[in-house]
Please model this.
Amino acid sequence: MYMIESKGGAISCMLLALLFLGTWPAIMTLTERRGRLPQHTYLDYTITNLLAAVIIAFTLGQIGPSRPNFITQLSQDNWQSVMFAMAGGIVLSLGNLATQYAWAFVGLSVTEVITASITVVIGTTLNYFLDDRINRAEVLFPGVACFLIAVCFGSAVHKSNAADNKSKLQGFKRLKKIHNKFFNFVLTTSSFQIETGPADSGLAKGKAKEGTAAYLIELEKQRAIKVFGKSTIIGLAITFFAGICFSLFSPAFNLATNDQWHTLKHGVPKLNVYTAFFYFSISAFVLALILNIRFLYWPILGLPKSSFKAYLNDWNGRGWSFLAGFLCGFGNGLQFMGGQAAGYAAADAVQALPLVSTFWGILLFGEYRRSSRRTYVLLISMLFMFIVAVAVLMASSGHRK
Model:
């Protein structure tokens, strides 16, 4: 099997994982905003997510002089470590499934910030002690503190942006009421162009501009998960649940590959990262398959019913969903490869993925367009703390003996 032995190689894996893990949520959000049912998207995603683990196992898990390789370990008496790996896959699958619904309620950027920060605060602390403190505590924990500050900024951004959207919608309704009752003949002329006029509010002919009230209304009509009139507490509750799930999968994987609790019999080799990732992905796949097939017939959050036949015939956005699964699968694999070499606490630097997700959220979906100055200040502060946090966590990297 192929082993990463240098600190530079481990950091390269982390950076590539950061790009992949920050991009796939944007793709999943894109399909939901275009009206594809999340159950259909997640079923496609989970197929290629497992396929990525299989590809990694039969390539990187087999090449190189290091032993034992992937296939050899499949027949060894290592079921205790396999259980830890599969437990990690289960909690990751639950977290990913929850965030798919949270993105609609809370937004891509803030969802990723809150879940990532919870993951770092809980998961990184657990990994630090599981890894026998190979990471530099004087560097690591200030990085964790930066993530904790960032989650506070993220919650404030969500609250401020929700207030901005509410204000836009109220203003839109008032203007539309005036339009319908009194000024229809004025609005059809080119002379009516004031700051709060039809172009700025999205009433002008053509596609509504991003960030306007009309854009929010168009999005609500088109998207699969309807969020108007629902409490933002629902979204935040789902987000915090996902964050707790995410905080547990990396420590579970750490236990699977390093056997800190000495559950393996004497002489049985520890699971290598590729074998552990294979079992990890199988459990995630099975759970996702069971839950999403159930959600086809008994959907949650007011989604319409579907069927397995309807899923098989739904090719709208299937390619994007497959791509999201590959990116997530390879991203997780790279994170674990880097963590095995430099310490899983340092590898949690990939939880700075909101940097990438926020970029895609603003570029693709127009998040925070035409928001208040307060929202922009909070957003910049949140991103700044994440930049500091990822740099500090990577600087804490150690070397596993």
Summary: The two ends are 17 Å apart (CA to CA). Confidence is low (pLDDT under 50) at residues 182-206. Residues 7-161+232-395 form one domain. The chain has one domain: 7-161+232-395.
